[in-house]
Amino acid sequence: MAKSSCLVLLCLLCPAVLAVSSQAYTWRNVKIGGGGGFVPNIVFNPTEKGVAYARTDIGGAYRLDADDTWTPLLDWVDNSRWNYWGIDALATDPIDTNRLYLATGMYTNSWDPNNGNILISTDYGNTWAASPLPFKVGGNMPGRGMGERLTVDPNSNNILFFGARSGHGLWKSTDYGSSWTQVTTLPSTGTYVPDPTDTSGYNSDKIGIAWVTFDSTSGSKGEATPRIFVGVANQGSDNIFVSNDAGSTWSPVAGQNNTYLPHKGVLSPAEKALYVSTSNGAGPYDGTLGAVYKYNITAGTWADITPVSGSDLYFGFGGLTVDLQLPGTLMVATLNSWWPDANIFRSTDGGQSWTRLWEWTSYPNMNKYYTYDDSLAPWLGPDYTYTGTDLKQIGWMIEGLNIDPHDSNHWLYGTGATIYGGHDLLKWDSGTGRNVTLKSLADGLEETAVQGLISPPTGPVLLSALGDIEGFVHDNLNTPRTTEYSNPTWTTTVDMDFAGNKPATIVRIGNGDSSTGRQVALSYDSGYTWSQDYGAADNITGGHVALSADADTVLWSTSSNGVLVSQYTSTFTAVSSLPSGAIIASDKKNNSIFYAASGSKFYLSRDTGKTFISTATLGSSTAPVKIVVNPNVTGDVWVSTDTGLYHSTDAGSTFAAASGVSQAWATALGKAEPSGSYPAVFAAANIDGVGYFRSDDAGATWVQINDAAHGFGSVSSNVLTADPRTYGRVYIGTNGRGIFYGDPK
Ligand SMILES: *[C@@H]1O[C@H](CO)[C@@H](O)[C@H](O)[C@H]1NC(C)=O
Ligand SMILES: *[C@@H]1O[C@H](CO)[C@@H](O)[C@H](O)[C@H]1NC(C)=O
Ligand SMILES: *[C@@H]1O[C@H](CO)[C@@H](O)[C@H](O)[C@H]1NC(C)=O
Ligand SMILES: *[C@@H]1O[C@H](CO)[C@@H](O)[C@H](O)[C@H]1NC(C)=O
Ligand SMILES: *[C@@H]1O[C@H](CO)[C@@H](O)[C@H](O)[C@H]1NC(C)=O
Ligand SMILES: *[C@@H]1O[C@H](CO)[C@@H](O)[C@H](O)[C@H]1NC(C)=O
């Protein structure tokens, strides 16, 4: 199957064609520090010092700056192109070092209906063109840390190879990524699937081609490199192939051990060797066995150089890197050693002998040959004050481990939560002085998946509900956070609310993700400390939560146990008058009043959430998204739905649709201008186009507040809250690019 595609130039600076006017906003990340999500790989340019990139699975790609900070490259990605934030592979050109390529697409199953793209930049990622692929790409699929699947020929940089998933095989471009043709001669497109029984298609799709590695030493400048190695996700059958004729014909590399999946294939040109790390799972969460191999290209022989054996080997291997300045120096990481911590192994003799980042002395004591520094993201921890053995300082999900090809002291690696690294790696080899700095170096990379945001009228300006890392009190928007919510501690916070008349009282709920027990907690000091709500039952999780105006009643629309209510932390009881899955809100003034919506219906409770009556219909809506309530006026509510934005000033007896709004997602009310007039209304909406809008006249007219450089990805995933203390300020929580705050310029 051959295919030639046309290049789509992305019009970043063209104004959107909209009937509504726009207002310039300054958009900044709310700083959490340290990333907060999985960084599958970091790729250094082998030719130009200082050029390096990180790719993430749901939040786009970043470029490394000289001061160790990161610059996001895909903030222009908007709702129509949301899957561009899933980066399955990244390639930086060794010849024209300004050229950069990304393989983008989020899922290969039905969760993402769109095909993938190769995004092409000729200016280090500042601007992009898209080359559409005829199949899906899975930046957030299993095996996303293998690779890189996308590689530029180091001798003839018009040539690229890309290894696809799902059985689509190997693809080649000879025109700098503009058009792609399938390489049909590769004997295998990869048969491995993590879980064939998964009916969602997520774990049952083929991982496919894992990596493409050119042997730069086999060719000469200006001509296609003849020798190319390809790793394929096969277990128990040939999984490393070689071409000696620039990709025309292929054969399995003789003598390979294909027991495990090959995660990385890294060339050591001076040694004329290929190093391979393997694991018995595709990653990023798994792996209980693995091996590390060295292939002598000249001799055609393999050596098993696995750094540990026997009962010490209870993990697979992921990240693998060679020091291009010190031939024979290489490092390999445990993909997942969940207890007590990951480990990283280093060899200076081509894998014959190894030293470790830490080792047991006499259990439970360990020698840590590193100094831990999480000053740029103190929440990461635990630091040296922690005395237990469940450390997890070094991390988990380590697929990207890289020594700077221009500086043997500089190294970076990605984990499930951040990027670590340092500038003193050669200390590792200094015998008794062996003690390298392990520092969180993900400053500027904000990768959290935001579930909820609140901005109370007093106390901290913002509190976040985050996927995987709980959430934070943001009493400063520009400094890294110190500590997540704790006691109780859950992995993910899904929603929060404050009490209108007692705004220091806050409720939060968890989704049960990796944690059990009661998933409702209350804070009486603006989120700094928490106590368990003992009215909640074990293992009831998720959904939405609302706290009554005087803070005595929690209304909880759970993910799978219907709507529940509890007053004075008594046992939650069912609210039978509301459909399961209803969205809910509390009045901010009157403690007796709650609101709800489901399908086309709006509901009101005047008895502190015990019973609801349906008061009105919301046009022809089928899916209400969010109810927001004027903090100063009882009964003044807005509801966003799949057919528009509806406003009531009589507690839901009647609604008026905001004209021109054909669909609305997250919405929020903020400080009025001038003070005392109607609150500023914010909405992620379709108003002659999907964008982010503000109205200062209760929805009569709107201005668009986002621009072509700020698209915020998938609109339906995003949450909003507006600041009741600062006019015009809105917070946008994204699914993978952290939290933004915007102020009128
Ligand atoms: C291949 O690797 C596995 C796992 O390390 C090992 O048990 C097996 O003996 C190896 N096979 C050969 C032929 O070396
Ligand atoms: C590869 O094998 C050749 C031939 O046996 C040998 O001369 C060379 O030193 C080997 N290379 C490495 C890196 O071990
Ligand atoms: C490395 O330094 C850290 C902190 O400075 C220290 O706690 C640790 O014990 C040192 N490790 C070794 C093996 O000396
Ligand atoms: C909650 O779930 C955990 C983990 O599945 C289980 O061990 C525990 O028994 C459950 N508790 C209740 C009350 O069902
Ligand atoms: C709050 O609402 C309830 C129910 O509508 C009403 O009976 C009560 O008078 C209201 N309270 C105040 C202070 O307005
Ligand atoms: C509510 O009223 C207070 C006091 O007048 C004012 O400071 C605040 O900004 C108002 N809130 C909104 C959202 O307008």
UniProtKB/TrEMBL annotation:
Q: Which Gene3D superfamilies match?
A: YVTN repeat-like/Quinoprotein amine dehydrogenase (2.130.10.10)
Q: Which UniProt keywords apply?
A: Carbohydrate metabolism, Cellulose degradation, Glycosidase, Hydrolase, Polysaccharide degradation, Signal
A GO molecular-function descriptor:
hydrolase activity, acting on glycosyl bonds
Q: Where is the signal peptide?
A: 1-19
* InterPro entries (UniProt xref): WD40/YVTN_repeat-like_dom_sf, Xyloglucanase_GH74
A single GO BP annotation from the record?
cellulose catabolic process
Superkingdom, natural source? Eukaryota
Q: Does the keyword tRNA processing apply?
A: no
Which family is this sequence assigned to? Belongs to the glycosyl hydrolase 74 family.
Q: What is this protein called?
A: Oligoxyloglucan reducing end-specific cellobiohydrolase
